[in-house]
Amino acid sequence: MGKLTNFDEIRKKRQKKTLFFRLLILAVISAGIISAYTYRDTILSMGIGNWASDGISAAFGGSGYPVFLPGDEPNWSGRVGGWLAIKDNTSLYLYTSSGRMLTEKRLHYQNPIVRVTGDRILSFDRGSYGLSVDYGGRQLFNKTFDNQIHCADLSTSGVLAVSTGATGYLSQVTVYSKEFEEILKYSSENFITGLSISPRKGMLAASTVTSKGGMLSSGVHLLNFTSSTELTHLDLDDQLILSIEYKKDGYVHIITDRSVILMTETGEIHASFDFGGKSLAAFDTNHDNYDIIILETYQNGKKLEIISLDGTLAAAGRCEMSSEVTGLQTTSKRLYISSSGRTEAYDLQLKPIKTYETPDAITATVVGNTLYYATPREIQSMPIS
Questions:
Q1: Which is higher by pLDDT, 209 or 36?
Q2: Which is it for the CA torsion 30, 32, 33, 37, positive or negative?
C-alpha cells in the first residue's frame, strides 16, 4: 500500500507539472495572438517574419544608458512606439530601452521633416522630392515625387496623404491606402500648408493660404476619400494657420497665429480661444482631449504663459515660466516641459508634480516610465514615477 500511495503522489505531481506547462504554453500563445492582433496593420505591411525578428532584436542586447551619440549634435527627440528616436542634421536613430541602437536612418534631405504616428515614422524633404515611411529598421514605402513636397500626414491606421506642386495648380494632394495604393487625387488653386487625416472615417482636412486684397487669408477644406471634391471649407481672414489636427472627437483642431479653433465637419466654428494679442511661442496638439499653448507676455519682463485647453477650448489650467522652453510633450496623464537643464512634470490641469534635473540637455523625451535626455554627445536616462 505504501508504494502504491507514493506512486499516486508522484503521478499527481507529474499531472500538476503537465497542467502548469500547458497553461504556460497557452498563455504564451494567447499573448502572441493578442500582440499580433494589436499590430495587425504593421504585420500585414512588413510581413510576420520581419515583424517578429524586429521584436526579438529590440528585446535583447544593449548595455544600458548613457549611450554615446555617433553623429552630430542632436536637434530633436521623440517617442516611436516603445522606442526612443533621436535626430541630428543627417540621421535619425532609434534606441531600445536597454540602450541598443535599433537602426540608423540616413536623411538624404536638405530640409528633413520627421513626423511620428504610433510606431511608424514619416520623413520627407520639404521643398524637394523625397518621402519615406519606416517601421523600426525597415522601410515600408519610399517615393520620389515629380513635384516639390509641401506637407504630408500619416494616420494611425496607416493612410498617407502628401501635398505637392502640380502642373496647372498650386497644389495637388495624393492619398494612399495603408497598403500604399493610390486612392485619391485632389488639385487646388491654393497653396496647401498642412494635412490631417481623420482617425474615425475617410475624411481629410487640408489647410491653405492665399492673399485677398493684399491681406493674408487662410482656409481649411474637408475632403472625402471617395470623391475628389471638397465637402466644405472654412475661411479665416487675416490669420495664418500653423497647425491642423483631426482628432477623435470629430473636430478639426486649428491653431493660428491668433487663436485656437474647433471646426465641425460642416465647416462651422464650434468653439475658439483667442490669444488676446499675445504672441504664440509653442504648442502641442498630440493629446486627444487637450491642447497646450504657450504665449509670450511682457508684463514686468518677458514671461511665458502656459495654458491647457480642454475639449471645449476652456482653460483647464494656467501657469507661468520665465525661462525659454526647449521641449514640450504630452502623455496620457502628464505634460512635460523642458527648459534650462530641467524637465518639469505637470498634470493636464498644469498642477506641478515633480522637477527632473537634466544638465546640458538639448532635448528630452518620456518613453513609458523613463525620461531620456540628449546632451551634445550622449543620451542619459532616469526613471520617473
A1: 209
A2: positive
